[in-house]
Amino acid sequence: MKVATVSIAGERRVGRIAEDGALLVPFDLPISEAHDGILALIRRNGAGLPPTLSPVPLNRVAMEAPIPQPRRNIFCVGKNYHEHAHEFARSGFDTSSAKGAVPGSPIIFSKVPETVVPSGSPVVIDPKVSPAVDYEAELAVIIGKGGRGISAKDAFDHVWGYTIINDVTARDLQARYSQWLIGKSQDTFCPMGPVAVTREEIDIADTPISCYVNGELRQNSNTGLLIFDIPTIIETLSAGITLQPGDVIATGTPAGVGIGYDPPKYLKAGDVVRIEIGGIGVLENEVVERSS
């Protein structure tokens, strides 16, 4: 099932995308519940889907991020594709490369919830803060059932579904500070969407992921090439941290980011970043420069 969070006549609604891809079938949810996006469905905890309202053409709604503002920081995994781990180590921006280009255990960092913006919304860069802003196409896992001490073999029982994230990064800030949160958490630095899909919708062991900047293919890989797979990531995070329903985990980006080029291809005003993940859809955002 593909699910979207949208705005209809100024009111936030959650609905499933019809098979023809042209209609949204809204769920009959109180506005107060729909405010949290697909969290309204996740919280039902096996109670089944709510009844639906009359379908609405998708071209008459405004798409929002599936989870417009996560309850807490987005968990992220760094250097989780081999070729990207090597390109990052070569870039000079990798403060973790002293232990080798390819990590022996998952590298975990986070982005603050307020970074989230929907597909179609601008990514705002501020050259006074950072002139070295990069893109990162990523598959994101959405937790459906919380837990602590989750074993890898049980991990998928805790997955509700998936969406797309662009882990936009200020590379100079990432290198300047020992922790990556500042470089990863600038305003608008987490485009998400356009939809979320339930876990049975895609074969996570063989799902293509790609990224284009102004129509130029920059990243082209497959989620089957993750160094640390989703069960390992969930087992790692939940060993001492209680995962909550609605938590979002970005699983890492493949090779082809801007710092992988010589010279680097940083984002500038007017650029359009298009990320495609098979079975989910297309996340597209234009880059604009902050006016003040």
Features:
292 residues; mainly beta; Vcp-like ATPase, Chain A, domain 2; Fumarylacetoacetate hydrolase, domain 2; 2 domains; globular
**What's the gyration radius in Å?**
18 Å
Helix amount: 10-25%
Look at the structure and name the CATH superfamily of the largest domain.
Answer: Fumarylacetoacetase-like, C-terminal domain
Low-confidence stretches: none
Structural domain tally? 2
CATH architecture of the largest domain: Alpha-Beta Complex
How does the major sheet shape up?
Answer: 11 strands, mixed
- CATH topology value of the largest domain: Fumarylacetoacetate hydrolase, domain 2
Characterize the overall form. Answer: globular
Total of DSSP H or I helical runs spanning 4+ residues: 6
Can you identify the CATH class of the largest domain? Answer: Alpha Beta
Q: Determine the N-to-C terminus distance.
A: 42 Å
Topology order in helix (H) and strand (E) letters: EEEHHEEEHEEEEEEEHHEEEEHEEE
Q: What's the average pLDDT?
A: 94
Strand content: 25-35%
- β-strand number: 20
Helix-strand category: mainly beta
